[in-house]
Amino acid sequence: MRALMLGTGLLLLTACSFEFVKLAPGADKVRVVRKTQDMGACQKRGEIEVSVKDRLGPYSRDAIRVRDELETLARNEAPSLKADTVQPKDEPNDGVQRFLAFRCDGAPIPPAQTTRETQGAETRPLQD
User: Fold this and answer.
1) Dist. CA 62–CA 68, nearest whole Å
2) What are phi and psi of 60, to 5 degrees?
3) 20-42 pLDDT, tens per residue?
């Protein structure tokens, strides 16, 4: 019984030890647009693949936190490609996601078509 309690305690302690991904210098200027957004006014700079742990053994991390960390990592990588905008290329899969990187230089990006589910929704990275 004592071994079971110790093992459970260690699992909980380990599950809570994930570090939060922080924005790197310059990443705060990188925009994130929807997957369906028309990026015709911008120059494609490349693709970015990022990954985070999405589970630890049987413990699955919160999907929203995983997405947020993946987005933050993509924003962190964008300046190295001289990109100012990132767009998800696909959905996260096992803690891995690909983004397209664009240089828009302030070009107006037409608003993406909204759906009933996303209308009025806004996402922002977690801040300390």
Assistant:
1) 10
2) -100, 135
3) 789 999 999 999 999 999 999 99
The residue that leads in pLDDT, 25 or 127, is 25
Copy the structure tokens of residue 38. Answer: 């028309």
* N residues, the chain: 128
Q: Which amino acid is at 18?
A: F
Question: Rounded to 5 degrees, what are φ and ψ at 16?
Answer: -90, 0
CA-to-CA distance for 24 and 95, rounded, in angstroms?
Answer: 20
> Radius of gyration of the chain from Cα atoms?
18
Model pLDDT for residues 66-118, shown as the tens digit of each residue:
999 999 999 999 999 999 999 999 999 999 999 999 999 877 776 655 444 44
DSSP element (H, E) containing 86: strand 85-88
DSSP of 29-61, one letter per residue?
Answer: G-EE--TT---TTSEEEEEEEEE---EETTEEP
